[in-house]
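Help needed: design a sequence for this.
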């Protein structure tokens, strides 16, 4: 089961510039920089706070921030940043087999393979973390330049939910592999949103929206 959260941020500052993220091909040298560092720097420059989950024993910030941006001739119109979390089903014993992901032989071999050249420490750690379940892009914070029906918390939550379903639950949903969107009966709509929910933000109860009837999210 996946937890999807969408947080809307009102437009109070204009965003300037666009980030260019590093890409690697071939063998990464042992001293090769972690591309996440450049992404993190871009996210820190955003003029709004990124919301995450409250600290809890079974969840750990995976240190993977995923930014997205769209715009027009006037500049950025929507910017979002999503946080992923590592799931520890038994936080008291991280060697407990119950917390491991069920990997096929090819995936397990790829993780355990030791190439004949040294690798950066950050790359080795990322490979080892693939053994454990990752709640991918669990929380997404979104800034919108212009308010509309497409920028409400309810609409953003539905969009985020369908995005998770499209990318993480294709097989259970009976979707073919590929970048096709979730459609028809498999798409979640705003009618599934509970708009009278509440959430705790910075120690205070605030109005929220939730989808709590989905078998996957």
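Sure. Designed sequence:
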């Amino acid at each position: 089961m996946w937890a999807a959260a969408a947080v809307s941020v009102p437009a109070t500052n204009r965003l300037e510039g666009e980030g260019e993220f590093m890409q690697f091909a071939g063998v990464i040298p042992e001293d090769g920089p972690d591309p996440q560092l450049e992404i993190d720097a871009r996210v820190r420059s955003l003029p709004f706070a990124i919301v995450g989950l409250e600290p809890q024993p079974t969840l750990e910030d995976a240190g993977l921030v995923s930014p997205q941006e769209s715009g027009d001739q006037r500049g950025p119109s929507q910017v979002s940043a999503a946080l992923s979390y590592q799931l520890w089903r038994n936080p008291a014993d991280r060697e407990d087999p119950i917390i491991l992901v069920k990997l096929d032989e090819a995936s397990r071999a790829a993780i355990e393979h030791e190439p004949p050249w040294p690798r950066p420490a950050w790359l080795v750690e990322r490979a080892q973390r693939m053994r454990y379940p990752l709640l991918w892009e669990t929380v997404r914070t979104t800034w919108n330049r212009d308010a509309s029906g497409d920028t409400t918390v309810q609409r953003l939550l539905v969009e985020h939910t369908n995005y998770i379903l499209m990318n993480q639950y294709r097989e259970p949903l009976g979707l073919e592999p590929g970048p096709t969107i979730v459609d028809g009966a498999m798409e979640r709509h705003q009618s599934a949103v509970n708009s009278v929910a509440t959430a705790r933000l910075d120690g205070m109860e605030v109005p929220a929206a939730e989808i709590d009837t989905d078998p996957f999210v």
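The longest helix spans residues 153-168.
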